[in-house]
Amino acid sequence: MQSFANIRDFIFPRSAGVSVPAERMTSWILMAALLYQAVLCAVHTNVHAISTAGVMFSEFVIYLLCMVVLSKNIRLELVAVAALAAAYLFLLAIMRNQLDPKGFRDVMIPILFYGIGRQVGDARYADRLLKLAVLLVLAFGFLEWFFLDIYSRVFNIFSYYVNQGGLAAGSNWAKDSVLGLNGIRPEGIGRTILPALLGSHRISSIFLEPVSLGNFAVIIAAWGLSKRREEFKDTIFFLLAAALMIVMSDSRYGMITVATLVVLRCLPLGRSGNAWPIVLPLLSALMLLLIGAFFDGRYSDSFLGRLYVSGRTLLGLNIGMLLGLDGYNTNFGDMGYPSLLTRLGLPLCVLLWVPLWMLKMEDERGNRFRIYITLYISLILCVSGTSLFALKTAGILWFLVGCAAGKAADPAPAGAAARPSAKTKEQNNAY
């Protein structure tokens, strides 16, 4: 019985001061956000075809469960931000004469998952959930690496995305492959990391896309690096897992970003006064503009080639596009900043960005994590159009932000005695 309890507590970790049903439901929500695409792809491959409507319904159920958890203790600031964001999006819909459901969905993810992280989670709870997620991701990653035939029989990724309208049926350049288009590096490009060992194959694991696996690696590396020095074992675990995932997915973005995060960890960051990273998205956009204006080049699948095209596109945005009035239904591909600005508009982007820096984090770990995810967000928008809002990684990211903010500023329930601080306990013990 004790062994069963230990296994149960590992799969469904406990968070201090939170009801068991809320904990269990939050664990299921996080696992569902991580696995729903893989489950739907397996159903599509072996049972019944899954359309875009099936994916949308699955996401709706996850968001609904988040609202159920949040309904137990609705925070005023969360309602205020959600109401302002919804009001602005409805205003855009009126001015565009068209409603954009994706804009509402993209804004909903950070608000809901930050909310459940703040209400239910804490650092210990997040650690155990994240370690479970890492083990699942690596298990399926090794399955794809060493038993590709079995993995392909379970997950026909190419057919899954074709059925949703994201790919054309004849667009697969890899003969007899059922992986996604970016699951195989085209001839002439090849892998960047260990090409002799893995060839042109890029591993996707449960994410179905190697890009998402690389993004998840950056998120867990940021969480690990934000920890205190005495928690170095957890830091090493998350860093090693992130490095392995980056090798598997051949993520050039992940390799560069995690290396930068390691450098940042060696610098004296994390104090509440370090608010300079708030301007990192602006600096990244300015970098793209300079590359687009002065770099004499053209598009290629190289890192610099993608930055060049993003910069040229940014230079071409007019005032209407910056405000989200024009170009919102344009497919910008891997150009994140043009996609974000035209879909949400610059005012709403600022409205959602500033509150992140108004949060009072629980300790220096939260301050460091906020800096690290700021770098993650700033750089991912340079090379990817939609990855920042992919639920399978975005849900985990914003849940961790909520956990890092903690419950220190939460008001105590009426009639409840205030809990003594750690310092007070030490003083009492001294007496």
Summarize the biggest pleated sheet: none
Beta content: under 5%
Which stretches are poorly predicted, pLDDT < 50 over at least 5 residues?
Answer: 408-431
Shape: globular
Helix content: 55-70%
Mean pLDDT: 84
Helix and strand run: HHHHHHHHHHHHHHHHHHHH
Question: In terms of topology, how is this protein built?
Answer:
Layout: H1 2-11, H2 20-46, H3 52-70, H4 76-96, H5 101-120, H6 123-146, H7 148-154, H8 157-163, H9 195-198, H10 210-225, H11 232-249, H12 252-265, H13 280-294, H14 303-315, H15 319-322, H16 336-344, H17 346-358, H18 364-383, H19 391-405, H20 422-430
Brief summary:
The chain is an all-alpha fold. It has one domain (16-289, 308-405). The chain has 20 helices and no strands.
Key descriptive features of the protein:
single chain; 431 residues; mainly alpha; 66% helix; 0% strand; disordered C terminus
Task: Explain how this protein is built.
The protein is mainly α and 431 residues long. It has helices at 2-11, 20-46, 52-70, 76-96, 101-120, 123-146, 148-154, 157-163, 195-198, 210-225, 232-249, 252-265, 280-294, 303-315, 319-322, 336-344, 346-358, 364-383, 391-405, 422-430.
